[in-house]
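ok so for the tutorial part 2 we go from a plain amino acid sequence to predicted structure tokens. step 1 is just haveing the sequence, like this:
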Amino acid sequence: MNSNIVHKEELELLLNEVFRRYGYDFTNYTRASLQRRVNRLMVIDRFPSFAELLYRVRSDAGYLPRLVEALTVNVTEMFRDPSVFKSIRENVLPMLATQPFIRIWHAGCATGEEVYSMAILLDEANLLHKSLLYATDLNPSAVSSIRKGVFPISQMKLYSENYILSGGQRDFSQYYTAKYDWAKFDDRLKQKMIIATHNLVSDRSFNAFGLIICRNVLIYFDKPLQDKVLTLFDDSLEKLGFLVLGAKEHIRFSAIAGKFRQAAGKEKIWRKMM
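step 2 — the prediction. this is what the tokens look like for a chain of 274 residues:
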């Protein structure tokens, strides 16, 4: 038996220990992806056996942020899937513009590239001044990155291309200042953000939103947890509010399906009708 491979029983032991000791509940995440991430963590952090990893988790609370970072998915980019942002620009923002104030929740938003993308869309629609963007993620390290608003300069070419494909008409470089290997985005965008940790598994609704965006998060949850989170979004949306999910995610067969209609062609954008 290879001691560097985490087996199913060991994974369950780890998940239960993290929940019991620290209150982070990963027990409804899909096991295959969790197993891959724990195996990767053991290699990178050079644990010779699962027992060594478990001992570290039990004895060192300072290791928790590292573990949470390893178990959560932080892959994102600005204007990711540009057609989605183009549809938001053309079909969603004109509807939100009729409201006196706009609240948008980016749930499970990792390091925040999509939140800054949304702030740019709002700015170009002349709506940023009456908007508030709530940026939340389970991972404290990711939340810290959102607050900094600093991203690798090496990504700016891709982000600029995505921006143009999303319908952007300006010079994308006007939104950030380049310094060495980093691009710092305009603080004016961040001023309209409320940034915090939030656990979709255990935390409740905390406001009423006109738009909720949660892309490529539900695919890592099992069906009961997906239903629980979708109900949370339903509870958090105003009537006629919009919900945006990832390309492989759907509300079909969920308890909330009858309350929504698809709002923008093939894109995973729904509008709450009830």
